[in-house]
Amino acid sequence: STPTISDALDLLHLSGGCLGLRPVVMGHKIAGPAFTARFVPVGIGKKGAGDFLDDVPPGSVVVIDNGGRTYCTVWGDLMTRVAKRNGIAGTVIDGVCRDVALIRELSYPIFTRGAFMVTGKGRVRLAAVQEEVTAGDVSVHPGDLMVADDSGVLVVPKSRADEVLRTAQDIGAREDRIKRMVE
User: Fold this and answer.
1) Backbone angles phi and psi of 109, in degrees to 5
2) pLDDT tens across 113-128, in order?
3) Which of helix, strand or coil describes residue 176?
4) How far apart are CA 174 and CA 160, in angstroms?
5) Exposure of 10 by Cβ count < 10 A (0-12 exposed, 13-18 middle, 19+ buried)?
6) Interval 40-67: pLDDT, tens
7) pTM above the 0.85 mark?
8) What is the distance between the alpha carbons of residues 122 and 175, in angstroms, rounded to a whole number?
9) Cβ-based neighbours of 107, under 8 Å, separated by 6 or more
């Protein structure tokens, strides 16, 4: 669970909790390597919002840095359909999404700051993919492990993933013993 992994990150003096990002559809647990995308306010140059989706390997978690913007979306029904078709594990957005009814109907795992119906077209543009981004005030590098569930979203640095896993397993085993004693 993210609480157990968060405890492991704390023991290892690593920050990883993405503040303010919550599930749109409850009941999903996702884990996978980050495929990053960053959006900026509209300016010079144009790329379509979803132009990068066909480059995302199956099993990856799309991490979109929309600067925490809540006044326009960078994800909706068409991107949800493509992501689901392409076997993407889920999406994390430092910003908002729209078309929530379809996201729930398809039971697509997405974690955001909320929902808002206004499009990002003409407001933001895709600036970069597979570069360092920010999600909930935490830096995310391509390939970092993203873990999310009903409690929230975590970033586990790729270089420390094995150590975090071992630590989380130890914490989980200790907590299981304590739970049995309580019961």
Assistant:
1) -75, 115
2) 999 999 999 999 999 9
3) helix
4) 21
5) middle
6) 998 745 555 677 999 999 999 999 999 9
7) yes
8) 50
9) 25, 28
Q: What is the dihedral of CA 74, 33, 9, 4, to 10 degrees?
A: 90
CB atoms within 10 A of CB 153: 30
167 φ/ψ angles, rounded to the nearest 5 degrees: -65, -45
* CA nearest to 91, candidates 174, 175, 16, 153: 153
What is the longest distance spanned by two Cα atoms in the chain? 62
Give me the helix-helix angle, 161-182 and 2-11, nearest 10°: 120
What is the per-residue DSSP string for 78-135? Answer: HHHHHHHHTT--EEEEEEEB--HHHHHHTT--EEES-B-----TTTEEEEEESS-EEE
Q: What is the pLDDT of residues 72-96, one digit of tens each?
A: 999 999 999 999 999 999 999 999 9
Write out the two tokens for 144. Answer: 């970092």
Strands 30-41 and 61-73 come out as parallel
Nearest residue to 152 via CA among 168, 135, 164: 135
What CA–CA distance (Å, rounded) separates 28 from 111? 10
Output the CA–CA distances (angstroms, integers) from residue 21 to 54, 93, 120, in the order listed. 25, 8, 19
